[in-house]
Amino acid sequence: MYPHDRPNRLARALNSLSVVQFRSGVLASRRWVVMEVRGYRSGRVVSCPLVVAPVAGHRYLVSIRRYLDFAPGARPHIPVDRHAPVEEFEKIADRIPVFRVTAEGP
Fold it and tell me: Which residues contact 69 (CB under 8 A, 6 or more apart)?
């Protein structure tokens, strides 16, 4: 569904449905969020379904299709079983975007 790391039509449709579901809160976890970014070339706003994952007292923002324990929908897209040893994940870690969520200000 993601040839050359770009979503095909089906993936775009499913992402759009996820955005609607996440925003509505219907059958959605509180960890599921929507990030909106302005397209670099097009300038149009793009909505991305994401998951906020709590790990060791910190919060991380991860793509829903790339985080196995908190995003079951990610499992078909990751070439490693979620119960695999850490060494298997280290082999693909450079392909998984993860951002730590921190607070600014006082």
Answer: 53, 82
pLDDT the model gives residue 73? 67
Q: Which residues contact 27 (CB under 8 A, 6 or more apart)?
A: 21
Whether this prediction's pTM lies above 0.70 is answered by no
HEC letters along 41-96: CCCCEEEEEEEEEEECCEEEEEEHHHCCCCCHHHHHHCCCCCCCCHHHHHCCHHHC
User: How far, in Å, CA of 41 to CA of 10, rounded?
Assistant: 23
pLDDT tens-digit map of 7-21:
889 988 988 898 899
